[in-house]
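Subject — a protein and its fold

Tokens — whole-number codes for backbone shape
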Amino acid sequence: MVEEEDGLVLPAAALAEAKALLRAADAGEDALIAELLESAALLCERFTGQALLARGFRETIGGAATDWRRSRGWHRLGRSPVRAITLVEAIDGGGAAVALAPADYAIDLDSNGDGWVRPAAPAARLRVRFEAGMAAEWPVLPAPLRHGILRLAAHLYTFRTDAGAVAEPPAAVTALWRPYRRLRLG
């Protein structure tokens, strides 16, 4: 199970860009626009299957139903693109976590941005802390992703009183995001 340690936080520059697109000079709706912008960014992450801005994640691997013959092999982390794997811990039966020595596991970051962990010996459960995200900052995020997020936030803002109008992102938005979409089989 993957958990975010640090939530997605969009900078003030993103809000300024959204306000410029909406031509909203009044600060009275900043909170609403920021909320719609965050929702649009999270929808972009779900659509693309990738974390947008770099932040920390934690994933627990293993459990009672784990087949360790298979899990002694490589385990792919659930979020990508992984920038760094910072800590691997063994979790004992009581739930206490103990950091593993580097000799007790192997890690790999592949060219697709996937992070991989392989325990050297079977353990009940592992907890892996890692950083994932396409870009460190909003301005470095690829322009089609940024523009799609801004356009979706504008769409949500425009049709906020018509619940039926926002069932799916507009085709223009998904067309911007589609080249960055990563699908996984099984």
Observations:
- The first helix runs from residue 12 to 22.
- Residues 2-52+136-180 form one domain.
